[in-house]
Specification:
This protein has helices at 13-24, 55-63, 66-71, 97-121, 146-165, 183-189, 199-207, 214-226; strands at residues 3-8, 28-33, 45-49, 76-81, 127-133, 170-176, 235-237. It is an alpha/beta fold. The chain has one domain: Rossmann fold. It has a seven-stranded parallel beta sheet with strand order 3-2-1-4-5-6-7, sandwiched between helices. Helix 1 (13-24) crosses helix 8 (214-226). It is globular and about 50 Å long. This is Short chain dehydrogenase family protein. Keywords: Cytoplasm, NADP, Oxidoreductase. Its main location: cytoplasm. One of its GO terms (cellular component) is cytoplasm.
């Protein structure tokens, strides 16, 4: 029996770095993402193409039993809800309706469905560690991020509620990774200031070397998950390690 790790949005950025980290550690990894990902072939890697923003497709996949099969012999299960859309990067009134409609199922519904399913189906003696990738945007009010921030705040509170339910051998935390140099950051920097008043802040972070690498952030998140006190800090941040 070994650690079985499920990572959403593993095709790029932080998710890809997390998948590489756990594979190098010898863990089995189930990667969930829409796109194919360039990772070194490994018998420990199971790839599942899926649009996590398509709630009906995700429910159908969960009903098919693939997740139960993946975790059936696990001593420890790690779920990392990493997949997210940052758009719309715009103040209310300038947001695209389609971007709001796409963000909510991906950023909120999918993590809740996966957490619920694993709590229900995990082997009785297995430890389940659920990690939502949180954000300061869910803990502070930023102009232009009412949708993204609301989603991250929802995950914070979901973690609090799951912890309050005291499921046996289930631990959960919402962990902010800091500002990581990913495609999401590039998307943010392309925003127009009229839509997203904070864009200059992120341009400055990039030019001043204020972004952490995906690999460094992945190692910090994995360190928090591996800690024997994981879940004691339900609302966590990798920057407390620095």
């Amino acid at each position: 029996m070994d650690t079985k790790t499920i990572i959403t949005g593993y095709s790029s950025g932080l998710g890809k770095a997390l998948a590489e980290h756990y594979l190098q550690a010898g863990c089995s990894v189930l990667g969930l993402a829409r796109r194919q990902v360039c990772l070194r072939p490994s018998e420990k890697l199971v790839r599942q193409p899926i649009d996590l923003g398509d709630t009906a497709a995700l429910c159908a996949w969960l009903a098919g039993g693939a997740l139960e099969q993946f975790v059936a012999d696990a001593a420890e299960i790690v779920l990392i809800n990493n997949a997210a859309a940052v758009a719309p990067n715009a103040v209310a009134g300038r947001q695209q309706a389609a971007e709001i409609a796409a963000a909510v199922p991906l950023n909120i519904t999918a993590p809740m469905l996966l957490a619920n399913h694993l709590i229900a189906c995990k082997p009785g003696q297995a430890v389940l560690k659920i990690t939502h990738i949180g954000s300061g945007a869910g803990r502070n009010a930023y102009p232009g991020w009412s949708v993204y921030g609301a989603a991250k705040a929802a995950l914070d509170h979901h973690a609090r509620c799951i912890a309050a339910e005291r499921h046996p051998r289930v631990y959960i935390a919402s962990v902010a990774p800091g500002v990581v140099d990913t495609d999401m950051q590039r998307e943010i920097r392309r925003a127009h200031e009229a839509d997203f008043p904070m864009v200059q802040r992120f341009l400055n972070l990039k030019s001043e070397g204020g972004l952490s690498s995906p690999q460094a952030a992945a190692a910090e998140i994995a360190s928090i998950i591996a800690d024997r006190h994981f879940g004691a800090e339900i609302i966590d941040d990798v920057r407390r390690l620095r």
